[in-house]
């Protein structure tokens, strides 16, 4: 039946009557186009889950139909998805939350769900995926090579071995040189294919060298050896052959990427070029009249000053002269290292200290744009210059094999995506988070604009908006405040980065744009395509075909001749895959870089090591709870206000009594920020992660901030405990006072765990309670016990005065025979200090045990000697002070070892 595709719709007509049978709206977000690799059919699923199957006869025709359908589906009219709140999109009232249309919300949720699928496809390490996973996720249109490989070479391994092996031992290297020379002559860009894979060719130990290849190409341009008589005869190559060879030589001389191949054998190659290809030095990249021998010879003899003896060509094009000297120096630094090395410059030195910008350590996206006065387009341009510098620092052929080059690019991409997600979640109010989403979307649209074409940054923004912590189910109030214009832009980005066709739209756009203007491709697609091509070996066996004709039939047999040759088809497909990367590396952007912004982008990965997926997930769950409660409170307030207004307008009762009136002001407006119930804001927690290295130190800062607030529940309990201890110091026994202290500390600890346990996990990064709860208990003891430590110590020393004297005399009597006496620098002298907390003494004892580092018997003897020669005259009361006032089961095991050794030393002296 006839199928007509127009802009935005597909019309299907009946074959007999030519009447319209069905019409499909391609701009409907519920319409999906699907297909299966190596099959000629494609399926269009409509809103009612009806399927339309089109048989295109061949996979090639199917790809043509897909291109037509994707083109018709692009550029939807956004007026159909407008909402009622366009006139007051930036309002801060609750009425805005309930006036958005249902169609817009469903479209946005579908778009973000598609972004989430895209994110699961792009946030990965290519080297960790199998070929089946890559086919299923990124390359559904790529034909499988495994079947062809099994037929052509059933005895060969799937890939060439990593170690160099001699494949062509029985054969001379001249055969491979002739094969490469013939491929260069007959194939457009064949010389670049060979230069791209030159490391692969040399690792095969085929005996092929670049000077020898140049000699063979020169000989094939002029002479030919007769196969029968062996006489040298002149060979007249075609114009295409000479053009391809000239391009190969000029790429060696002048191409910013392939000229690096001359470094291995520079002198020999230049000697051959000067002798056999002098015309290739005259003009750079001229393909018009390269094959005029008489003109070239006269030009060489008449203008000898134009002949360049040799100098390695400059790798930057003339357009880079617009860049500043600072950017040029930074680019040289990056090119001098084999991988991307980020400097450790502090962002605080780059950030201007202003009153409005108090978050100078790790600035979010909106803060960066406001501080440096960058529009979304300007920020996208600065990111483009930085990403272009990252890309040009790598050799093009490094993409052929996995290594630290790809790891650096992958880590930088994932870290940029994490930074964008964190820039949204770090905002405190839903309005600020909505503005951050608008900024990320604006940066994505600016990155895909003309003269920027940074698809690497576009996919980073898509991966950010498709992250689970930013879904509307997690941030419902935030997405209510996102502008309708931003949601329309999201739908436009969805049509560009739809992964259902293997990112076919994005790949086509990258390929078309890279040939005409500067662009940066998304390297995830390139890496997946190269990973898929690894299933085919570089060396395949040569086959011979024999035909046997009989009276009844003709039989054709294909046998393995035992010879091997290079698989130039695989090399050519890899070059075609990397062609967009080659164009990106050789075409510079005519933009001016800002050195401070480039430093910021360069040091950002090291500054954001704390932004782990676990931290972002916890922050998202906290925001989900607060925003859901705010939405429910807003709905309840609106309902209460409407009911009260109806109640006021109702008539008086029958007995004339006045009716009670209640206004909507009785319902208090809930806070739209999620930081009200926290000890430290999420931004302050990120500052802690950035400035404080140890988790226990961050936890201690959190506890100190908790008790600094006098109105918090733990602070009130601590004040009550201090008052009770001062009261019972003169009215109760030491045992009763210690019991009261222990119970009070336990109650405060449980309160802190219940009220701020989530923040403790957030600032430490430890999910296991057995890891962070002992450290929390020690921090609570340090903070709460300090004001009453001296009172408890004095009371215990007064009660155990006689026991301390007895233990002291015993220890000194046992230590009379020791040769070493510690008077100064004895760590146990700290036992006599007043005002120390039990945890501080435990840490001191643990450090002594760690320094002794001996068996239990020897450590006990040495510890007893230290205790006898110290100035501490109250060992018994110090032991009771530590063991009776705190719960040792809640402390770390390393600290408990110290008090155990002290008990054994004191008890051993009394025996």
From TrEMBL:
Start and end residues of each stretch annotated as Disordered: 541-563, 646-668
Biased composition (Polar residues): 656-668
Keyword Transport carried by entry: no
UniProt GO BP: small GTPase-mediated signal transduction
Domain Ras-GEF: 375-626
Pfam families cross-referenced by the UniProt entry: RasGEF
This protein's UniProt keywords: Guanine-nucleotide releasing factor
Low complexity biased stretches: 542-559, 646-655
GO molecular function (one): guanyl-nucleotide exchange factor activity
SMART domains: RasGEF
Protein name: Ras-GEF domain-containing protein
């Amino acid at each position: 039946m006839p199928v007509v595709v127009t802009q935005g719709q597909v019309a299907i007509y009946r074959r007999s009557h030519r009447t319209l049978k069905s019409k499909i709206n391609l701009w409907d977000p519920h319409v999906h186009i699907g297909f299966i690799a190596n099959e000629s059919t494609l399926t269009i699923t409509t809103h009612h889950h009806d399927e339309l199957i089109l048989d295109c006869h061949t996979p090639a025709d199917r790809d043509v139909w897909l291109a037509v359908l994707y083109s018709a589906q692009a550029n939807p009219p956004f007026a159909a998805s407008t909402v009622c709140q366009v006139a007051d999109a930036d309002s801060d009232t609750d009425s805005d939350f309930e006036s958005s249309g249902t169609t817009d919300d469903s479209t946005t949720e579908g778009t973000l769900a598609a972004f989430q699928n895209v994110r699961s496809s792009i946030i990965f390490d290519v080297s960790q995926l199998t070929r089946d996973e890559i086919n299923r996720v990124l390359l559904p249109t790529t034909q499988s090579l495994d079947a062809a490989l099994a037929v052509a070479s059933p005895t060969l391994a799937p890939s060439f071995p990593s170690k160099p092996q001699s494949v062509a031992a029985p054969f001379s290297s001249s055969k491979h040189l002739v094969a490469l020379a013939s491929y260069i002559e007959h194939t457009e860009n064949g010389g670049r294919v060979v230069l791209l894979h030159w490391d692969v060719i040399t690792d095969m130990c085929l005996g092929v060298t670049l000077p020898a290849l140049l000699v063979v190409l020169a000989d094939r341009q002029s002479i030919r050896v007769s196969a029968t008589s062996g006489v040298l005869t002149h060979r007249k190559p075609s114009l295409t052959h000479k053009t391809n060879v000239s391009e190969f030589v000029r790429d060696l001389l002048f191409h910013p990427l392939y000229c690096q191949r001359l470094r291995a054998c520079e002198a020999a190659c230049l000697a051959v070029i000067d002798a056999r290809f002098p015309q290739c030095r005259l003009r750079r990249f001229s393909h018009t009249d390269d094959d005029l021998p008489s003109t070239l010879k006269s030009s060489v003899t008449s203008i000898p000053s134009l002949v360049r003896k040799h100098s390695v060509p400059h790798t930057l094009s003339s357009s880079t002269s617009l860049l500043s000297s600072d950017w040029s120096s930074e680019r040289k630094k990056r090119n001098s290292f084999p991988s991307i090395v980020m400097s450790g410059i502090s962002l605080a030195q780059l950030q201007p200290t202003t009153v409005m910008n108090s978050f100078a350590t790790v600035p979010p996206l909106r803060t960066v744009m406001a501080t440096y006065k960058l529009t979304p387009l300007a920020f996208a341009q600065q990111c483009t210059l930085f990403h272009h510098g990252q890309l040009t620092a790598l050799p093009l052929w490094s993409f052929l094999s996995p290594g630290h080059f790809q790891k650096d690019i992958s880590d930088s991409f994932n870290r940029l995506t994490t930074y964008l997600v964190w820039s949204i979640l770090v905002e405190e109010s839903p309005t600020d988070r909505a503005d951050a989403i608008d900024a990320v979307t604006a940066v994505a649209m600016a990155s895909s604009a003309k003269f920027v074409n940074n698809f690497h940054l576009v996919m980073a923004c898509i991966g950010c908006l498709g992250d689970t912590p930013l879904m509307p189910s997690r941030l419902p109030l935030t997405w209510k405040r996102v502008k309708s214009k931003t949601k329309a832009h999201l739908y436009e980005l969805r049509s560009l980065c739809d992964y259902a066709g293997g990112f076919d739209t994005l790949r086509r756009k990258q390929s078309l744009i890279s040939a005409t203007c500067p662009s940066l491709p998304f390297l995830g697609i390139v890496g997946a395509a190269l990973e898929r091509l690894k299933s085919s070996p570089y060396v395949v066996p040569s086959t011979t075909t024999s035909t046997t004709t009989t009276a009844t039939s003709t039989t054709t047999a294909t046998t393995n001749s035992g010879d091997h040759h290079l698989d130039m088809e695989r090399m050519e497909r890899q070059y075609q895959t990397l062609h967009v990367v080659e164009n990106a590396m050789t075409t510079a952007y005519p933009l001016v870089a800002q050195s401070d912004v480039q430093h910021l982008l360069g040091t950002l990965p090291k500054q954001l090591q704390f932004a782990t997926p676990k931290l972002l997930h916890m922050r998202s769950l906290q925001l989900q709870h607060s925003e859901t409660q705010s939405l429910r409170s807003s709905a309840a307030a609106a309902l209460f206000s409407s009911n009260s207004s109806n109640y006021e307008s109702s008539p008086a009762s029958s007995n004339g009594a006045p009716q009670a009136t209640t206004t909507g002001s009785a319902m208090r407006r809930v806070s739209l920020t999620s930081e009200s119930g926290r000890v430290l804001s999420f931004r302050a927690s990120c500052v802690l992660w950035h400035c404080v290295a140890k988790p226990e130190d961050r936890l201690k800062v959190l506890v100190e901030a908790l008790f600094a607030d006098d109105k918090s529940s733990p602070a009130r309990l601590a004040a009550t405990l201090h008052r009770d201890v001062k009261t019972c110091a003169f009215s109760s026994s030491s045992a009763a006072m210690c019991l009261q202290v222990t119970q009070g500390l336990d109650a405060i600890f449980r309160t802190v765990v219940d009220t701020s346990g989530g923040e403790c996990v957030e600032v430490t990064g430890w999910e296991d309670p057995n890891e962070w709860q002992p450290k929390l208990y020690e921090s609570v003891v340090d903070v709460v016990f300090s004001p009453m430590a001296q009172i408890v110590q004095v009371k215990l020393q007064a009660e155990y005065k006689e026991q301390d004297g007895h233990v002291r005399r015993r220890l000194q009597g046992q230590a009379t025979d020791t040769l070493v006496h510690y008077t100064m620098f004895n760590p146990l002298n700290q036992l006599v200090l007043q005002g120390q907390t039990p945890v501080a003494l435990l840490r001191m004892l643990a450090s002594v045990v760690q320094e002794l580092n001996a068996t239990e018997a020897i450590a006990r003897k040495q510890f007893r000697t230290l205790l006898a020669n110290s100035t501490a005259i109250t060992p018994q009361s110090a032991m009771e002070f530590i063991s009776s006032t705190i719960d040792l089961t809640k402390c770390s095991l390393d600290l408990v070892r110290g008090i155990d050794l002290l008990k054994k030393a004191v008890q051993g002296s009394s025996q």
